[in-house]
Input
Amino acid sequence: MGKRDLSEYSICKDAQAMIAKAREDGVETVWDRLREQEPHCGFCELGLSCRNCIMGPCRIDPFGNGPQRGVCGADADVVVARNFGRMVAAGAAAHSDHGRDLIETLLAVGEGTTADYGIRDEAKLRRIAEEVGLAVAGKDAKAVALELAEQFFNDFGCRRGSISFIDRVPAKRRALWEKVGITPRGIDRDVVEMLHRTHMGVDNDAVNICLHAARLSLADGWGGSMIATEVSDILFGTPTPRTSKVNLGVLKADQVNILVHGHSPIVSEMILAAVHAPALLAKAKAAGAQGINLAGLCCTGNELLMRQGIPMAGNHLMTELALVTGAVEVVVVDYQCIMPSLVTVAGCYHSRIVTTSPKAKFTGATHIEFDVHNARQKAVEVVELAIERFKVRDAGRVEIPVEPVEVMTGFSNEAVLAALGGTAAPLIEAIKAGKIRGAVGIVGCNNPKVKQDYQNSNLIRECIKRDLLVLVTGCVTVSAGKQGLLMPAAADLAGPGLSEVCKALGIPPVLHVGSCVDNSRILQLCGMLATALGVDISDLPVAAAAPEWYSEKAATIGLYAVASGIFTVLGLAPPILGSKVVTDLAVSGLEGVVGASFAVEGDPVKAAELIDARIRVKRTALGLTP
Ligand code: XCC
Ligand code: SF4
Output
């Protein structure tokens, strides 16, 4: 790692301390590897390299001196659009395949073939089943679970005209999608079709590819991700407000520390169940530990935080650094956003990485495969492994750098509506009165190209200052939580109107609504507000932002937000700048097609100004004070 000031890497004290320790311990981190990769390939950054076939690989010269077409004849616009389309397809595939795993679990519960999982929110099971058109009267919960699982499986194929949750989309938006031809069909169908279209010699019109990218992103947002969220609530409970703690200070020097990392709650919920087993606690005590401490990383951490109040150790860029504390026995992972480097970093300490999914193995990790029939037993094995590793922990290498910060979490739509007395009417009144001028979903990742949590947390501050209610998911949750922004006291940092509403309700001005698949909760809320007002989502005073995004999934989220009518600001540009057609479409053309577009702005104050300007326009058009 270079000699740069530690504050250039991250605004977080725990990150800075652990980057310094990594240097002392000779551990390589994501920032070291980024430096070795720089400068990045300019063709790739602009989206102008193609390796879709072996007549290539090809590169289009952005300056116009070199080749303007690949061997097949594809120009810059086609190459960029195809690459972006595949990026969005990969992101949708990740979220939606995660959703499918939840349906598999729901099916096993319905069939009665698992004793490890069950229905924790039967009322929601029945409500959702009725919503998607199933008859539930007189049926027991298992029978309903079975039918609902089968119904959701159909959303992945191509047997039906459209996805189950299409009625959550306001009528005006549905009509627009029909007109433009981007109504999502089967989830797998739309993802596969993108792979088909981007094979050499299929779809060679950049705009046509981009419109299909929009359609498949909608199949994720209103389909695969929404199914993941709703089935997770049915199986593990619908979140309700509660408090917990965040940052590396949630690790405990005198306890066995287990971190869950990845995305689905299927594994992490079982680990949670196991750490409370008296027999395991006794084993931990016999090994000299005061207890067994469980904390989360990234989105499966968000799942446990939202539903069970389990503390969060950190977001994406904290995953290596959590191991550098020397206090972590086991990181148990499922899939997505788990840097392969974790195995190497763990090897520098006594820590073990445990993989659990047949689709996500890491060379050098310990593989303990979970399925619906053995999950409880496998979770016990993971905890036993952690107790064994505690015995060989080197206390001299342990450093837990900070005290944890308190956060409030659990703001599912159900919880928000309950807090408002059962309907969205008080929220709509507050928006009409201008106390809450609008709402902004600030979501996504960390990226080592930018100072960790700086853009995420400062955009939040700038928005709440302007009386904009902020909803956070994913890794932004930790950025907000560490700065104290997820507690009711943060109302003091909000504008007068938002501050007044938050204080009256005892809520923070920044609401944690879950993991990245839970961005579907924000879509559903927007749909409800638009329908209540008789307008389209694009008419609402709302916006979205992904200030520090890195992943393909975040690209998909950004696109389904825009295709749903929500103006979206990205902190880093996607690899599309090599095509004028695709870039113009993204930052302005889409406005005329779906009523929203992207902006790219890395400065949080300027990003907030863009969002504010948008919300002024929307409020004025609704006849409200700007
Ligand atoms: Fe991954 Fe979901 Fe991004 Fe965090 S926010 S780095 S995608 S864990 Ni989803
Ligand atoms: Fe080159 Fe065309 Fe093949 Fe891409 S698809 S690698 S541009 S020949």
Q: What stands out?
A: The domain at 76-236 is CATH 1.20.1270.30 (Substrate Binding Domain Of Dnak; Chain:A; Domain 2).
